[in-house]
Structure formats: C-alpha cells, structure tokens
Amino acid sequence: MGLKEWLFGEDPSDLNEEALAATWHAANEMWAYNWALSQDNYAYQQENTAAARINETSSRNFKEQSEYNGWLNRENMRLFEYSKQVEAYNASVSSYEEQIDYNNLAQEIAVNDANRVYQDQLIGFGFQNEDLLMKYHEAGDVAKYDVAGTALGIMKAQELEQLKIRETNINKDFDVAQAGIDNAGLRAGLAATKADAAFKTQQARLDTTVKTGQQRSLGQAGRSAEKAVSAMLASYGQSQAALVQSITDAQSKYMLDRHKVAETLRHQAKLTNLKYSNIASELNSAIRDEGYKTTGISLKISQLGEQTKFGREQIQQSIISAGEQYAADQNRITLDKYQADLDASSRMQPVPEAQPQESKPLVIPETVFVDPQRPSQPPKPKKGVNTVPQKGLISYATQVASVVAPFTSDIQLKEDIIPVGTSPSGLPVYEFTYKDKPNQRYQGVMAQDLLNTKYANAVSTRPDGLYQVDYSQLDVEFKKV
C-alpha cells in the first residue's frame, strides 16, 4: 500500500475532491463566521465609540461645570472681597468725615479759647493802662494838694513865726517889767532895811538914853556907874555898828541883786535875740523844707510820669507780644488741625478697585472620534482557493482600542502647523489642520517630537505605519480650536 493510501484509505483523487469540498465548505463557514464576527465587531466598535462619546461628553461637561463652578466661586470671592473693601472704605470715609468734623469742632473750640484768652489779655492790659493813668492823675491831684499844703505850711510857719515873735516880745517885755519890778523890790527892800535900821537906831538910842538915865537916877557914882553907862553906850555903839553893817550888807546885796537882775535881763535879751534867730531859722527851714517838699513832689510827679510812660510802653509791648502769641496760637491750632486731618486721611482705606474679572473658562473642545470603519464583505471563498481572511477577535479588539484612546498625530497627516507654546513638562504644543479636514483647526503635539523623550511609550504605530499618540499619558490636551 502506498503512502497516500495508507494515509487516506481511499483513492487519492477522491480524497482530494472531498478535501477540496470540505475545505471549501469550511471556508464558507469560516467566511460566514468571519463576516458575522466582523459585523459583530463593527457593532461592538460602534457601541464602544458611542459609549466613549457619552463618557467623553459627560467628562467634558463635568470638567466644564467644575471649571465654571471654580470660576464662579472665584468670581463670587472676588466680588465678596471687593464688597468688603467697599465696606471698609465706606467705614473709613465715615470715620474720616467724623474725625474731620471733630477736628473742625476742636479747632473752633481752640480758636474760641485763644480769642477769649487774647481778649482777656487785652482787657487786662486796658485795665492796667487805665490804672496807670488813674494813679498818675491821682498822684497829680495829690501833688497839687501837697503843693498847696506846702504853701499853707509856709503860711502857717510864717504865722507861727509871728506868734513866736509876739510871744518873744511879750516875754521880753515881761522880762523887762519883771526886772523893773525886781529892781523896785530891791530898792524897796533896801529902803525898808534902812528904815528898819533907822528905827532900830532910834529905838536903841532911846533905850540907851532911858537906861542911862535910869542908871544915873540910881544915884550911883563912881567908876561902877561909869562902867555901867559905858557898857550901855558900848552896847549901843555895837548895835549901831551892827545896824550900819546890816545896812552896808543890805546895800551890797541890793547892788548884787540889781546886778543879778541886770544880768538876768541881759541874758533874757540874748535869749530873746537867739529866739528871734531861731524863729527866723525855723521859718527859713520850714520854707526850705516846704520847697524841698515841692521839689520832691515835682520830682515824684516827674518820676511817676516816666514810670507811667514806661508802664504804658510795657503794656503796648505786652499787647504786641500777646498779638504775636495769639497769631502763633492760631497757626499752632491750624497746624494741629492739619496734622489731625493728615492722620485721619492716613487712616482711610484706599479707594477699592475690583480685581480684573477672570476670563470665563473656555469650552472644552469636543474630542474627535473616528467612527469604526464599516466592514466590507470579503469575497466568498472559491472552491479550491483559500480566500478567507484570518483576522480574529484580538485584531478587532486592537482596532477598537486604537479608535477609542490614541489620536493620529503623525506630522505627515498635518499641515499649517504653528507652535503656540509648551506644556508644564516642556512638550511643544502646536495648532494644525488635518489634511483631510482643512476647515477645522486642532491643538496638540507631534508624534515625532515624543520619540526621543520620556513620553515615547505614548507613541504607537498604526497598521498603515503612521504614528498615533495616547494623550492620557501626556500633560497636553488634544482639542479643537
């Protein structure tokens, strides 16, 4: 038995026909299966694409709403902060206006106080001036009375001089009269002494005669009688001598007393002349003193006039100084108010300025989805020819995955490419147009730029040899612009 017979157990030609028929039948079944599978895969891809669109739309709407909510929150916060700034500014303006009103009131009170003090000073200076003038005029009036008093004093001194002269003249006349009386008394005393002596002499003579006669009548004689008579005569002689001596003594005393009276009269005359000199000197002294008083009064009036003039000049300078102080007080009050106004102004909040409104978030461009390619019915198998494509489920799954996630980013499919910036990681970003869609602009990357970077794993090759990019691995968003 040959090999074919051993293998197939029949005639090889029959077996070959049967094999061809079986192969053709299997090919038809595989074609039907593959065609059905292609249609199922197409439907599955359509569902996945629709689900991807829905998911992308939901995600895009969620992102747009989230970004809009974030923008709205920031806008509300911006308006809130601006309203708070306006509120603080209005409060500071109100406080500033109240402070300005207070400063104006304080300035008015301070000005009124300064005016009152200045007016009080002027009134005080006026009273001082009036007091000086009154004192000056009063002193003048007093001086007039004092001058009149000095004249009256001179008159009184003159009158007193006349009285003293009259008194001195009277005393002089009295002294002369007294001296005359004293002389007359002395003369009368001397005469009385002489008369008494004469009477005593006569009486002694008579007594002696009587006693002598009595002795003689006794009839005695002799020496004893003579002795008795002699004794009587001797006694008479002694008494006569005593009387003579008393008269002599009286005359001597008379002369002494007259001399004394004369000396006393001369002494009184000298005293009278001295009194005349003293009276004249006292009158001159009184006149001189009154003159001195008059000169002193004039000097006092002159000094008072100078003092009054000097006092009035001091008052005038004090008025000028008070006016300058008043002006300085006004300036100080004005400066204090200005400083207080500046302090109030410095505490004012700055005029609020609203921050520029943040641009509303852009609409997220729709993701471009490539619809799955509708499967074309392959040619039916022919008997004796194996024409059934051997694409299985995995290849269709790969096709679906390539449609959902990656985007074609090969530079060969793009035109009008313009650089617009870089991503946060430094990837170049472009705007471009697909050659098969010249009316729509897109933004994204070029696959060729990623090949030598850390994002090379995001680049894959399509079955046709062109590059595509998985943007989920990048910090760049693929979008329409």
Radius of gyration: 85 Å
| Count of helix runs | 5
General shape: rod-shaped
Q: What fraction strand?
A: 5-15%
Count of domain modules: 2
Structural class by secondary-structure content: alpha+beta
Low-confidence stretches: 1-9, 387-405
Report the count of strand segments.
Answer: 7
Distance between the termini: 78 Å
Strand order of the largest sheet: 2-3-4-7
Subunit arrangement of the protein: single chain
Averaging pLDDT over every residue, what do you get? 81
Tell me the series of helices and strands, N- to C-terminal.
Answer: HHHHEEEEHEEE
Q: How much helicity do the residues have?
A: over 70%
Largest sheet: 4 strands, antiparallel
Strand and helix map with partners:
Elements: H1 3-8, H2 12-217, H3 223-346, H4 393-404, E1 407-408, E2 414-422, E3 428-434, E4 437-444, H5 447-450, E5 459-461, E6 467-469, E7 479-480
Antiparallel strand pairs: 1-6, 2-3, 3-4, 4-7, 5-6
Helix pairs in contact: 2-3, 2-4
Explain what the structure shows.
- The chain has helices spanning 3-8, 12-217, 223-346, 393-404, 447-450, and strands at residues 407-408, 414-422, 428-434, 437-444, 459-461, 467-469, 479-480.
- The protein has 2 domains: 1-353, no CATH class; 406-481, no CATH class.
- 6% of the residues are buried.
- β5 (459-461) and β6 form a beta hairpin.
- The strands form 2 sheets. Strands 2-3-4-7 form a 4-stranded antiparallel β-sheet, with no helix packed on it. Strands 1-6-5 form a 3-stranded antiparallel β-sheet.
- The chain is α+β, with helices and mostly antiparallel strands and 481 residues long.
